[in-house]
Amino acid sequence: MSSDLGKLGDKTGAPVEVTVGWGRIPLRVLGWGVLFALMFLEPNRSARAWSVWVVVILLQGAISLLTFALGAMASSVSGPYTGLVFALGTFWLLMPYVSGKGWPTTFWCAFGLILIGTWVFGFSGMDSVGESEFMIFLLYVGFNSGLGFALGLASSRKNPHIGTFIAWLLLWSCVLWLVTAIPWVVIAVAEAGPIALTALFAVFIAAGVGVGVTLAFLILSAVEPFYGTRFRAFLGELPAPETPPAPPVITCPAS
Amino acid sequence: MALWLLGVSVCSVHLAIAAAGAGEPVQTAPANDKVLLIPLEYREVGFTIDRVGFELHTPTAAQAAQLKLPPVGKGTKLVFGALEVGTNQFAFAWDRNKARLYLDLNQNEDFTDDAAGVFDAAEKGYSQKFAGIRLSVLDGTGQCDLLIDLMFYSTRIGFAELRSFYEGKLELAGQTWQIGVVRRPVASGRSTRGRSESALLIRPWTERANEFSLTDSTAVTVPFCETVQLWDKSYTPELVWQQCGGTNKPVLKLGAVETALGQLELAGMYVDRLVLANAPHRAAFFHGPARIIRLPVGTYTDIEVFLKNDDSEATAAFDEKVVVTANTTNTLPVGGPLTNSVTITQRGRILRMDYKLVGYSGKPYELVHSGRLKEPEFTIYKGDRRIASGKFQFG
After folding, report:
1. Taking a C-beta distance cutoff of 8 angstroms, is the pair A249, A32 a contact?
2. Parallel, antiparallel or unpaired: strands B282-287 and B227-230
């Protein structure tokens, strides 16, 4: 390291030796391992079931590009969305276990699983516990995505089609992201003036990426009959399949 | 009698200045061995000497009904705040729509009877600046003037920037010095703990054209404490007012006091200026200090140090408890040489590198640059193989 200090000191500082460890990477690997293990559950024992990994890998690639483009902000921005990909991937693989249980159960399962999955997996990629921006963003992505998904389910239960669900999902996502952003935008405007309204663009982008991740899984259900049948049964458009074996115990990656 | 003699002494010096016609304050000779009297002149500058933040509030309708307010447009909400200078409090009301400020100059809580207290911002906008506000405060027996700019960034926060001080000239330690008194405004209701009401400026007379600030850690200002040590002598500073030609003129009175002294040894090199303070009790100022300095015994909590070696300069300010005792010579861990250093922390897959310029005992310093600072550079090696290099970013 070097900087010209004039006559107050040497230009080159003493070398600093650092040993780079694995950090939190194993926790993430464990999380993906859990997702991989779910492939061996009885309802997922089909070659077509592996198509969920195409979506996961494509989304992760897109998030990595976003991470690279944003540089220093990357870990705060990408972590929650990686968590959302993990949560939705898990949800898509466990969907048979929550289908046909009645909409209140479905509502809470969808909300809870997406919220917890995003939090647990996203948290494992966090830089440090003390970064409040990361925590707030993680909460936003998990809460808005989970609740938007669950409210989309509840709203489309009388007309259970993928198209109806997507329409409700988009509507609820807009409402939730805007409502939860209002307090922060109001505070920002009070502090910095109307210029802070530009923060709304960030909210729209954050909401757009969150909805985009969810839509990618819905597209999977639209184009891949294996997941199409599963999702339509989950919505109630088709009768639910026979009750599968008891759900597995999932190891929490951040524990 | 003693006071009368004092008055004559100062006045005569002041008349001598007028006769010289130089327009500059002239040093005074000591009134006696125990007291230095320095006539001061009011001076306004184009840079910010001190900056204080204040909070604004919007009163309820009931509170507003009790205030004597200027006529404002329908639906206009005035925002209120206040500044204090010594025991004086100046309330103000800001009308953002009209970009107008109403200042209660006569401090009677009536905004309608201060014709000179109405100011218009140069530009209408969300943030507004009211420049060139002159306050006159009763300070003992004299009227002390201040020039401030008020900046409003939102309906909640604003800043007052001071652009005036009182200046004098002093012969001390074989050199001519510019000595000044800075009266500092404070925000009403804010804690002033550790912040002195005034500050003393001390620097070579030849540097008087340079900008200075109470916030830049260059060790040219000292808190106006009960006891101020200037080199090897302790003084009780006092701003007094003397009748001269029918007007009250400010005079800085430095009364020499005998105090028990202790010693500190400066651990590092290149210390050009040094200020140790524990406001409002004691402060000590050194210019070109020796390796061992003598100063009043007691505890000091704030340290400012200015390093200089030829044309290379650096500053530092620490909050650190330093105890000076009569019988022992403690070490003061300040000074150079400076070293480029980096702190590395691993966060997940990210290696975070924080650059620090450190001096003796790892204390952080900042280089003083007249131009643009050049970013420090780094190179990373894995074994003998260079794998990355780059520059640190400021911020």
Report:
1. no
2. parallel
**B365 and B270 Cβ atoms separated by less than 8 Å:** no
pLDDT, tens digit (0-9, with 9 covering 90-100), for B36-54: 899 999 999 999 999 988 8
According to DSSP, residue B127 is labeled S
Show the beta-strand stretches assigned E in B173-224.
175-183, 186-187, 198-204, 221-223
pLDDT at B107: 85
Query: What are the Cα distances from residue B108, in Å, to A250, B64, B114, B185, B343?
Result: 71, 16, 10, 19, 56
To the nearest whole Å, the CA of B160 is away from the closest chain A CA by 17
Nearest Cα neighbor of A152 from A216, A215, A228, A241 is: A215
- The verdict on a CB contact (< 8 Å) between A191 and B154 is yes
Rg (CA), chain B: 25
Q: Which residues of chain B register pLDDT less than 50?
A: 1-23, 26-31
Give CA–CA dist A32/A27, Å, rounded.
9
**Which residues pair with residue B391 across a beta bridge?**
B377
Alpha helices (H) in B234-374, listed in sequence order: none
Q: DSSP for B283-318? A: EEEEES--SEEEEESEEEEEEEEEEEETTEEEEEEE
- Tokens, residue A187: 């505070």
Q: How far is CA A97 from the centre of its chain?
A: 20
Instruction: Verify whether the Cβ–Cβ distance B348 to A24 is below 8 Å.
Output: yes
CB under 8 Å to B108, separation ≥6 — which residues? Answer: none
Task: Pull the structure tokens for residue B206.
Answer: 């030849």
Chain position carrying tokens 């003129």: B249
d(C-alpha A120, C-alpha A254), whole Å: 6
Beta-carbon contacts of residue A118 (< 8 Å; ≥ 6 apart): A80, A83, A84, A86, A87, A138, A141, A142, A145, A146
CA distance B251 to B350: 60
Distance of alpha carbon A233 from alpha carbon B355, whole angstroms: 57
What are the boundaries of each domain within chain A?
54-235
Alpha carbon distance B384, B378 (integer Å): 15
pLDDT digits (tens, 9 = 90+) for B351-386: 778 899 999 888 899 988 766 677 888 888 888 898
Q: Which of A1, A5, A192 sits opposite B367 (nearest CB)?
A: A5
Cβ of A222: how many Cβ atoms within 10 Å? 15
Who among B156, B367, B377 is closest to A191 (CB)? B156
Kind and range of the H or E element at B233? strand B233-244
Q: How far apart are CA B315 and CA A217, in angstroms?
A: 57
